[in-house]
Design a protein that fits this description.
alpha/beta, D-amino Acid Aminotransferase, Chain A, domain 1, SMI1/KNR4-like, Leucine-rich repeat, LRR (right-handed beta-alpha superhelix), 3 domains, eight-stranded mixed β-sheet, five-stranded antiparallel β-sheet, 9 helices, LRR_dom_sf, Knr4/Smi1-like domain-containing protein, KNR4/SMI1_regulator, Knr4/Smi1-like_sf
């Protein structure tokens, strides 16, 4: 018996010892830690008992392997079955079939360089430098001495850009702001070597299964490009609340080169416009405290700025009630405490809605076909099977999740012209693959609901996700 198998037996014994009723535990182990979910004997999420320190110690033993999933099934009589697999990132399983694919607005590294970011090696504009030095001197706080022109140029060569004149001038004047002085309001510039480290930080995955991949527009509209990330956002200053300021070297037509944007813990959008330049923040540090524009989930009382709504507390969801929100891009109707009995999915004409995530007892998916901007659709909760064939009329439908919906014609997904990511239940996948359909044009696929290791491995092989090693141990062995 090898070390991992021994650890799995320890997991099983500890799991069974803590049960108050039969059930299942799904554990995902990765380099980032662990995630665990419990289900009762019927497969519904629920509490089925506690776990003692032996269970946690066994988890730590097994955690030396990255990307492992563990399925524990047991009863309060002490019996257990533990199935585990390496090479699966999660249960339910997900597979990225085309790592290079990105949803619209989610560009990969390697974006074309804007002409204004090309560095010709000239020194900092003397007029800008003089004004920045005067403003810093008037602030009345002592800072570490700034950088020389050669040092700034060397950093720019590492970054592959020319920094805005105002930021160059600031770093000619100060080395960094170690005391959170308020020179730029909430933001405190870091040393240049830290800017390089942030800029070279590893890029995350493609985010094909992110709950809401819509890229919202910063307010005022037209100043910041609608992208989730950019090679030409150079982060230079954090605040005291885990937010970060960056200079934008590739603005939208209504913006300015070197404008200040913000992202981080308190920003949902993905970025927020702050000021037209570093110089503007030096002149008026309070701009950082009162950013120009709210988050995209502002209430419908402000229709010009509302981009996302979440509908709750109603028996009937009626999307036509959302008329008059000209920038609406995201609609959610999920209420686990008061589920809607029905949903009228007719979206008012002209709204630029890109995602709908609806849970209701009854709905007609065909009503969504009149909204050509839809890219991401999740439907769940209905009891009477519905047809999804009408969704083939959506020219930009990129992701579909009906894993928790009753569907009468799952084979219709073969007719969806732009589909790149598909999430189905195990039964739906079996039915679809039995038609001879092949997932060759998908960039990502996933199963929904409670899925065991054996079924997950078989599915992963069937959709082309590669071979996965898996084993099962039990109390009887």
């Amino acid at each position: 018996m090898d070390e991992i198998e021994s650890a799995m037996h320890a997991l099983g014994r500890a799991f069974a010892a803590g049960l108050t009723r039969p059930g299942t535990e799904i554990v995902t182990l990765s380099r980032y830690g662990l995630e665990a979910r419990t289900y009762d004997a019927a497969g519904n999420p629920g509490l089925i008992g506690g776990f003692d320190s032996a269970f946690l110690d066994a988890l730590k033993t097994a955690a030396g392997v990255t990307d492992m999933v563990v399925e524990l099934r047991g009863s309060d009589t002490g019996t257990y079955v533990v199935s585990y697999a390496t090479g699966l990132a999660s249960l339910p399983p997900r597979a990225v079939l085309d790592p290079a694919y990105r949803f619209p607005g989610h560009p990969a590294p390697g974006m074309p360089k804007p002409a204004a970011a090309t560095n010709d090696g000239r020194p900092t504009d003397p007029a800008v430098l003089a004004e920045v030095r005067a403003l810093v001197a008037a602030f009345g706080t002592s800072f570490p001495p700034g950088y020389g022109e050669e040092e700034i140029l060397a950093v720019e060569n590492q970054l592959g850009v020319r920094l805005p004149e105002e930021l160059r001038a600031l770093y000619r004047t100060i080395h960094h702001d170690p005391s959170e002085s308020g020179l730029l309001g909430r933001f405190s510039p870091v040393p240049l070597d830290q800017i390089v480290k942030w800029y070279e930080f590893a890029e995350p995955d493609a985010g094909l299964f992110k709950s809401d991949p819509v890229v919202f527009e910063s307010y005022p509209h037209g100043r910041v490009k609608r992208v989730a990330r950019s090679d030409w956002w150079v982060t230079f200053a954090p605040d005291y609340g885990m937010n970060f300021a960056a200079v934008d070297l590739d603005p939208a037509p209504g913006g300015t080169y070197g404008q200040i944007i913000e992202f981080g813990r308190d920003v949902w959008g993905p970025v927020r416009y702050i000021a037209p330049s570093v110089l503007a923040l030096l002149r008026e540090p309070g701009l950082s405290e009162s950013p120009a524009g709210p988050q995209p989930h502002t209430t419908p009382a402000d229709p010009d700025r509302t981009q996302h709504v979440h509908l709750r507390g109603t028996d009937e969801v009626i999307l036509s009630d959302l008329a008059g929100l000209p920038h609406l891009r995201s609609i959610t109707a999920i209420d686990r405490s008061h589920g809607a009995t029905s949903a009228d999915l007719a979206i008012p004409a002209g709204l630029p809605v890109e995602i709908v995530d609806i849970e209701a007892g009854a709905f007609d998916p065909g009503l969504l076909a009149t909204t050509p901007t839809l890219r991401y659709v999740r439907l769940a909760g209905n009891t009477t099977p519905v047809s999804i064939a009408g969704l083939a009329a959506l020219p930009e439908l990129l992701r579909l999740d009906v894993s928790e919906a009753a569907v009468s014609d799952i084979a219709a997904v073969a007719t969806f012209p732009a589909l790149k990511v598909l999430v189905l239940s195990g039964r739906q996948w079996t039915e679809l693959l039995a038609t001879g359909w092949q997932p060759g044009r998908l960039a990502g696929a996933a199963m929904g609901g409670l899925v065991g290791v054996h079924d997950a491995v078989a599915w992963n092989t069937a959709i082309g996700g590669g071979t996965v090693e898996h084993r099962t141990v039990s109390a009887e062995e």
